[in-house]
Structures are given as structure tokens and as C-alpha cells.
Specification:
The chain is α/β, with parallel strands linked by helices. It contains 11 helices and 10 strands. Helix 9 links the parallel strand 9 and strand 10.
Length: 281
């Protein structure tokens, strides 16, 4: 497959945080995709996926999370943020940059893992920002949405990780093998949703859960059959928060993918995932 050029687009949030969107676009795109990564994963790791989607007519814009990749900040005891800054500052700034770069096309919002969760939250906060939602290996981390073999120990992990972040000043995810190095409030917001099943961002008075109930999109999710981090049951639970949207979940195994059907392996061989997402509901 011929690789299309990758363009970097400078973005700045209203609080001064800066980063670069990575853009991959065919000559005549028929839609545009704003893609949100998994926790701790830099945008550049989705370039193979972006190239595959672009080869099928989709202009792809890859976001970098605050604290990762091209972001101008890194978490520390004195440098902290949570879902509020991501949802109210960063995602709107990236969307505005995309609109300046390429407007007038059908809009798709998508994400992997945490990216899919925050895509759903963003749709609630910004109604009409997309007509389609794409989720890959993404579901609510709520412990009650997991199969029995994992359900019993997850609440312990969900309490330990915020405690560790408080003790160290940030979560040393690269050392413990979960996510990247993450800010304290972000881990607290994530763990709150994992323990309660509800999305509540510290410092944000807007009712995210009520807003998601009003979202109307075509939601298409891909669950991977060996993915214990986002099993299909957790994807169903996440999509249940969008009751007015049309929803479909496709489950792919290693035969369909050509590689292990885990949480991350699809990123290097995304052809089956892209083909699934492109099929109409």
C-alpha cells in the first residue's frame, strides 16, 4: 500500500497547553475521522491505522493526550489535570484545528480504550460534533461490566492506582505496566468511573451521564475476542449510555485479524478493523 504523507498541525488550548495533531488524508476524502488514543499511547502509534483508513477514503486526524507524545506538559506533583481539562480545553481545540484544515465533510469521532470512553463523553458535551462514533477495543472500565474471572480483583486495582498516584505525585504507569505516566486527577477521574460506572469529572458541574443519553449518532464498535481489558461486555455497557443512538458491536478473533485479538495488536494490522468499521450499520 502506498503511504500517504503525514502532516503535523500545531494546536494550542486556551490554557496554553500545546501539541500536534497528526493528519493523514487522501486526495479526495469522503469523511474525516478525529481519533483519540488509549491511555498512555502517543498519536504516532496509530499511523498504520490512519494509513489504512485513508486508503479507504477517510481523512484521519490523530490526537495526542495531554502529558503524552507531542504534548508540551508532563505530569508531576506540581503539574496536574483531569478529564475536565481534556474535555473542555484539549478536544475542542483539536476539533477547531481540524475544521480549519478540512471542513465540509461528514464527521466521525473515534477512539481506542480510554479514547473511546472520552469520545462518548465529548459527544455529550458537544452535541452534533460527529454523526458517527467508532470504538475499537473500548468499553467502560466499570468492574461490574466485566466477566466473573476478572470482576473480583478489579476494585482493588482501581483503588490502588489512585493511591499510588497520590503518593508519587503522578501515576508511574510506565513502571507499573499500566498506561503511561499519568496525572493524579486523570487517574482519580478514571478510577471513579471504574468503581461507580458513571462519568463524573472533578471540577466539572455538567452532568455528563445525562448529556450522553441525548446523543444521536451511528455507533459502531469493534471488540477483540482476546482483549481482557475491554471485553465485549464492557463495550455494551459503555454504549448503553447512548440509548438514542443506533449501535452495533462486531467481535473479531485472531483468524479475522491475522494476529492475536488483544488490546493492542490490531494497531499493527488494522485492515480487518477498518473493514469492519466501514461497513454500514
Amino acid at each position: 500500500m502506498h503511504e500517504l504523507p503525514v502532516q503535523s498541525i500545531d494546536v494550542q488550548a486556551k490554557d496554553g497547553h500545546t501539541w500536534q495533531l497528526l493528519a493523514v488524508a487522501p486526495e479526495r476524502p469522503n469523511a474525516r475521522l478525529f481519533w483519540l488514543p488509549a491511555m498512555g499511547v502517543a498519536a504516532k502509534h496509530y499511523l498504520v491505522f490512519a494509513q489504512e483508513a485513508a486508503a479507504n477514503g477517510i481523512a484521519v486526524f490523530l490526537h495526542d493526550w495531554r502529558g503524552n507524545g507531542s504534548s508540551s506538559v508532563r505530569p508531576a506533583r506540581g503539574v496536574d489535570w483531569g478529564y475536565r481539562e481534556v474535555l473542555m480545553h484539549d478536544l475542542p481545540a483539536s476539533e477547531a484545528a481540524i475544521a480549519r484544515h478540512l471542513d465540509g465533510l461528514p464527521r466521525i469521532l473515534g477512539g481506542h480504550s480510554l479514547g473511546g470512553q472520552l469520545a462518548c463523553c465529548h459527544l455529550g458535551l458537544a452535541p452534533g460534533s460527529a454523526s458517527q462514533l467508532w470504538l475499537v477495543a473500548s468499553g467502560s472500565p466499570y468492574w461490574g461490566a466485566f466477566p466473573p474471572r476478572n470482576k473480583w480483583w478489579l476494585p482493588m486495582a482501581y483503588r490502588f492506582l489512585p493511591w499510588l498516584a497520590d503518593r508519587r505525585g503522578f501515576l508511574p504507569g510506565r513502571s507499573v505496566g499500566f498506561g503511561g505516566n499519568e496525572s493524579r486527577r486523570l487517574i482519580h477521574d478514571w478510577a471513579r468511573s471504574a468503581l461507580s460506572g458513571r462519568y463524573i469529572a472533578e471540577g466539572l458541574t455538567f452532568d455528563i451521564e445525562a448529556a450522553m443519553k441525548q446523543v444521536v449518532v451511528d455507533a459502531h464498535a469493534v471488540a477483540l475476542m482476546e482483549d481482557w481489558m475491554a471485553p465485549a461486555s464492557s463495550t455494551r455497557y459503555l454504549l448503553s449510555k447512548l440509548p438514542r443512538s443506533r449501535r452495533r458491536i462486531d467481535s473479531l478473533d485472531r483468524l479475522a485479524l491475522g494476529t492475536r485479538a488483544g488490546h493492542f495488536e490490531w494497531m499493527k494490522q488494522p485492515q480487518a478493523v477498518v473493514s469492519s468499521l466501514l461497513r454500514p450499520l
